[in-house]
Every structure is written in C-alpha cells, then in structure tokens.
Amino acid sequence: MPAPAPRKNHKVLGRLSLPERTFVADALRTETVGGVLLLAAAIAALIWANTPIRESYESVRDFHVGPAALGLDLSIEHWAADGLLAVFFFVAGIELKRELVAGDLKDPRAAALPVVAALSGMAVPALVYTLVNVTGGGSFDGWAVPTATDIAFALAVLAVIGTSLPSSLRAFLLTLAVVDDLFAILIIAVFFTENLNFAALGGAAVGLGVFWLLLRGGVRGWYVYVPLALVIWGLMYNSGVHATIAGVAMGLMLRCTTRKDEGEQRSPGERIEHLVRPLSAGLAVPLFALFSAGVAVSGGALGEVFTRPETLGVVLGLVVGKAVGIFGGTWLTARFTRASLSDDLAWPDVFAVSSLAGIGFTVSLLIGELAFAGDKALTDEVKAAVLMGSLIAAVLSGVLLKIRNAKYRRLWEDEERDEDLDGIPDIYEQDNPAYHLRMAEIHERKAAEHRRLAEVTGGASEENDGPA
Question: When comparing pLDDT for 457 and 307, which is higher?
C-alpha cells in the first residue's frame, strides 16, 4: 500500500494574484487619501477643543437639528456618529461581501489566516482591558473599545512614514480590517442595543426586504435607492439598534460578482463602492472625527490616562493586545496548518503590521461613546485614551516598519517593474514564454543601439584613450 502523499506546504502572506493586487491598490489609494483627511480632522478637533474658542466647538457639536416628530432631533455629533458612519459601514458591508464571494475569504483555507488573526486581535485586547480593570477595580463597560482597527488611519500613517509596504502585507491589513469591522458591527448590535422598538425594527426589516427585491429585480436609479435607504436608516435608528447596522445590511445585499455572459466589466457592488467610497473616506469619517475627537487634553488629563483603570486598559489593549493578538493568531494559524511565511518576509514584518493595527480610531471612539453614554467625563477620558493608544501604536509600528523600509522598497520595485511596457508587472509574467521572447527582443534591440553608439563614438574614444 503506497504511503499517503505529504500535505503540500503553502505560503503565508505570499504574492497576490494580479486582479487581487489591482483591486487592493485601488481600494487602498482612496483609503490613504481618506486617512490623511481623517488625521487632519482629528488634529483640527483637538486644536479647536483646546483653545480659547472651545465654547464654539461645543456649541456646534451640541447644536440640534432634524425633525423631532420622526425622533430625529439630533445633535451634530449624533448625526456624525449615527448618520455619516452609516455610509462608512455601508462601504464596509460591500467590502465584506466582496471578500466573501470573490476575495480572500472565499477560500476557507485562505480565509483562516485573516479570520483567526482578526478574532485574536479582538479577543486579546478585550482580555487585556478586563485584566487591568479587575486588578484596578474599574468598570468593565469599555471592554470592546480597544478591539477595533482603523484601516484609514493606519494607511495615513503608512503614507506619512513613506514605507513601501509590499502588497501582500497591505492586503493582509485590509482583509484584517474588513473582518474586524464585521465583528465590531456584531459587538455594537449585540452588546449596545437596549429598549428595542419592535414596530420600528419590523419596519426597517420590511424596508431591507424591499431593498433586496429591487436589487434582485434589476431596478436601477439612485432616486429609488437613496430615499429608501434614508427610510431604512431612520427606522433602524428609532428601533434602538444602532443605525449603522442599516448601512452594513444594505452593503451586504449588493451583488459583488460579475456576469460575464452579460458583458459586465464590474459588478454592481464594485461600481457603487467606487462611487461611495470617496464620500465615506473623504467626508463621512473625517466629519465624525472632527466632532468626536475634540476632547480637552492637558498634562493632568494625559497623566490620568495611565492611572485610571478604564483608560489604561484601553491604551494597553490597543498597543499591547492588538499586536500580541494579531501576531499570535497569525503565527498559530501558520503553525497548525503547516504553512510557512513568504520567502520575501520575516516574522518581525508581521509583528510590525500587527502593531499598526493597534490604531483603533474611528470605531473605537464610537464604541467608547456607546459604552459610557451616561458619563460624559469618563467618555471624554476614554476618547483621550483611544487617541493616546492610537498615537503610541502609530509611533511603534512606524519605527518597526522604518527599520525594514529598504527591504520593502526592493520588494515594491520588483512588484512594479514592467520592462516590456505591456501594463502587467514582469513578476507576473515570468512563467510565460511570450514574455521571455519579448524581453529577448528588447535586450537585443538595446544591444544593437549600444553597438551603433560604439561605432559612432569609437574613433574619438580611441584617440582620447591613447596607448594602453
């Protein structure tokens, strides 16, 4: 009886396929720009809230607007958190759907790595927060605050430090953030929903059903879907379930596969994401940051961040819990699936990216508001802790990535090289005989040009050189 064939070893964080690489590059380009705007908005909020014009910040943030009869007489701060972030979660829903049907999460074996890493990267920070508050006698209400990763802010840090991070690590960070967003949504829906209004919830469910039927029927036109989406959002808000759940539910309903028999170049989900992502990254998230990150920061307040158990738990959860959780989950997945790390990378690279995931700005601020809604002072202190933890994680990961930046730059140049100018990086054509034929022709043409140049300049060169 022949011995069973050995299980084939596979690579962790290996090179992406060309279509996946193109998608990741396009998605991250928008997220990076949005991240820079997010960073600018956070800085503007901190300056506005810590200068003599602080009262104007509070007046604008607390100004109420909206139809009270519909239960939507909300402050600007709430409109940003409950309204604008619904757009952010709508895009997150589309990203998740695409990953499930056409991306890394489609293949269970490939999906194991980001899913386990994301789960570990949420469980360990929650555990760190809980342990700190058990020993310090603090409140357990904020256990979920350090569990979130802010992909836009993380990419802004990459843009600032200028690292040429390989596409495989960027894709890992993006997929990790998508799975992270999914579980953050579940946390919000399960743990921060109180006093359900079943009539409004039923109305929202009916609205989502109509939305799905219209999509299935091929109905087109923003004038149909935008008003319906607003109605669904309003009903979801009044139901007691956080209104951002409406956004992700509608995003998940979009079709994210192309119909080749109908000549589709891009799926409806991809087209809509392309239209809405700039609105999310360039407007919705920065405005949320502007009206959520404006907390009073002083020497005494920053000192309390490291002495109060609730805030210390948030900082340690983001800085230590995220890095240890994601790195540990990745290593364990590789260890027990007999996988090996890509030859181009080393485990310190994975740890650096895991540290970068400790930037938990947007969703962490949102969960902090929900967790300590009845205590304004503690809410502001937790926000300060989120800012401090995200800043420390950004600096730590920036230093770790800078150490390896020369290596990353070489990998990036290899990925981008296109000597035959056909629009496809050479690294993806190395097994194609036609590619080698083209390269041979290019090299022969260059050699011929050098020979002609030598013939033209050879006489002058010999005169100048003199006898050997």
Answer: 307
The amino acid at residue 418 is D
Spatial distance between the Cα atoms of 142 and 144, rounded to a whole number of angstroms: 5
Which token pair is 189?
């829906």
Contacts of 137 (CB under 8 A, 6+ apart): 309
| Alpha carbons 308 and 314: distance in angstroms, whole number | 10
d(CA 390, CA 396): 10
Q: Residue 451 and residue 400: Cα distance in Å, rounded?
A: 47
In 243-392 the beta strands, taken as DSSP E runs, fall at: 340-341
Give the pair of three-digit tokens for residue 141.
């209400």
Pair 114, 325: CB distance under 8 Å: no
Tokens of 371: 């967790």
Q: What number is the average pLDDT over the span 187-198?
A: 84
Distance CA 166, CA 23 (A): 14
- Using only C-alpha atoms, the chain has a radius of gyration, in whole angstroms, of 26
Reference 43, options 281, 279, 284, 290; nearest CA is 290
> How does pLDDT run across 316-344, given as a tens digit for each residue?
999 999 999 999 999 998 888 776 677 66
- Sequence spans of domains, the chain: 11-193+242-406, 426-462
Contact 73, 86 (CB under 8 A): no
CATH 1.20.1530.10 fits 11-193+242-406, yes or no: yes
- Could you report how far apart the first and last alpha carbons of the chain are, in Å? 73
pTM beyond 0.90: no
Element (H, E) at 65: strand 64-65
Kind and range of the H or E element at 289?
helix 285-292
Rounded Cα distance between 450 and 468, Å, is 23
Give helix then strand counts, H and E, for the chain.
20, 4
Q: What pLDDT does residue 98 have?
A: 83
How does 439-462 read in b/e, with b if 16+ C-beta sit within 10 Å? Answer: eeeeeeeeeeeeeeeeeeeeeeee
| SS3 label, residue 12 | strand
